[in-house]
Amino acid sequence: MGGHRGLEASVVPRAGISLRLLWLRSLRSAGRDAHLVLDPLRLLLSIPQAIVLLIARRPAAVFTTGGYVAIPVLVASAVLRIPTVLWEGNAIPGRSVRLVARLATVLAVTHAETAATLDHPRAYVTGTPIRSHAGVDPDEARSMFGGRPGERILLVFGGSQAVRRINEAVLGALPGLVERVRVIHVTGEDGYSAALAAREALPSGLRDRYQPRPFLHDDMTAALAAADLAVGRAGASTLAEAAAFALPMAIVPYPHAAGHQRRNAELHATEGAALLIEDEAMGPEALLDAASLLADPARHATMSAAARGLARAGAADAVADLVLAVAGGSPLPGAAEIDALARGSAA
Questions:
Q1: What are the tens digits of pLDDT across the range 181-217?
Q2: pTM for the whole structure
Q3: What pLDDT, on the 0 to 100 scale, is given for residue 345?
Q4: What is the location of CATH 3.40.50.2000 in the chain?
Q5: What DSSP element (H or E) covers 241?
Q6: Measured between alpha carbons, how far is residue 139 from residues 149, 225, 313, 323 in Å?
Q7: Are 70 and 98 in contact (CB under 8 A)?
Q8: What is the band of 66 on the pLDDT scale with cuts at 50, 70, 90?
Q9: Which residue from 193, 149, 154 is spatially nearest to 174, judged by alpha carbons?
Q10: d(Cα 162, Cα 39) in Å, to the nearest integer?
Q11: What percent of the chain has pLDDT over 70?
């Protein structure tokens, strides 16, 4: 089940999974328009809709992530007494999660401080489930993006939120960047044409060192494997995938998400795995300064080791074990068992 303003409408069917959209649209209407009244009404109407859908499917368990869709799903599951697992990846849980977390049978989180904030009696620190990286060869990935032996690769991407500032920083710094490193730049659709024009303005001998792409989709895993440094936002999945490849980051937290991304970034930076660049400070000079890390092998190695220490390669397995336990009515695993599984060190 999903909502009408998320990515699920395009992502889920493409993966071959059926999707039912609830009537709710969002809880973040900024304007004083009809949606200010209609969105809470849609939310309320989505609860009986979710009840009907769950009765029809009769699931043994429900898994939900944070966000406004979790509200009707968890309320409906509680009414029908269906066991649930709620996963929250942000260090600071959103309003929706704070509202309904206690309805979940089990809470899975990326950060220990999230569990403390939500004070759930059955909370587990699992890390962030990410796609499998089995079989990904960093050398093959580097070749895929034209990387030569000894050449450093910088990956820049902004996610779906406020990518324009990051794009402008790249274009402003581009002549200096390509003299030092090979740049893979995920621009988004709106920024792609400007990036192509900037590429053409480079000296002919340096153009191949700048590779703008509107999106990477399935090639994103290869880009992360190829990169020596990534610049991006502080979404939970972004940070988890970078850590899986022991990839240092320069993190530019999205400033308009109630501090969620900033706290995610702070925790990553505190462990020594990332540089934190405030959104308003992100510009050509800040980007060039971050890229200078690639000229300091000792510092880069230290940050890479710190990123590796944050990785939770078995996070998806840990969450799956919790879902299977509540679905089968089995005793829940111990916290130490889940922690070992999440770290990839379970027997």
A1: 999 999 999 999 999 999 999 999 999 999 999 999 8
A2: 0.89
A3: 67
A4: 8-128+313-342, 138-310
A5: helix 236-244
A6: 9, 8, 20, 36
A7: no
A8: confident
A9: 154
A10: 24
A11: 94
- Which residues on adjacent β-strands are paired with residue 85? 63, 106
Give residue for tokens 């937290």. Answer: 253
pLDDT tens track for 91-150: 999 889 999 999 999 999 999 999 999 999 999 999 999 988 888 999 999 999 999 998
How crowded is residue 42: how many other Cβ atoms within 10 Å of its Cβ? 21
Which residues have a Cβ under 8 Å from the Cβ of 204 and sit 6 or more positions away?
A: none
Name the token pair of 34: 């009809």
CA distances from 268 to 114, 235, 238, 239, 322 (A): 15, 11, 11, 8, 26
Percent of the chain with pLDDT over 90: 82
Domain 8-128+313-342 has what CATH class?
Answer: alpha beta
Residues paired with residue 185 on neighbouring β-strands, in sequence order: 156, 212
Beta bridge partners of 106: 85
Listed residue (53, 157, 64) closest to 106, CA to CA: 64
Tokens standing for 119?
Answer: 């004070």
Tell me which residue of 47, 51, 67, 70 sits closest to 59, measured CA to CA.
51
Q: How far is CA 163 from CA 185, 221, 248, 250, 280, in A?
A: 11, 20, 20, 15, 13
User: Which fold, 138-310?
Assistant: Rossmann fold (3.40.50)
6: which 2 tokens?
Answer: 């998320």
> Is pLDDT above 60 for 30?
no
Token pair belonging to 67: 């966000």
Listed residue (99, 146, 105) closest to 118, CA to CA: 99
Looking at residue 151, its amino acid is: E
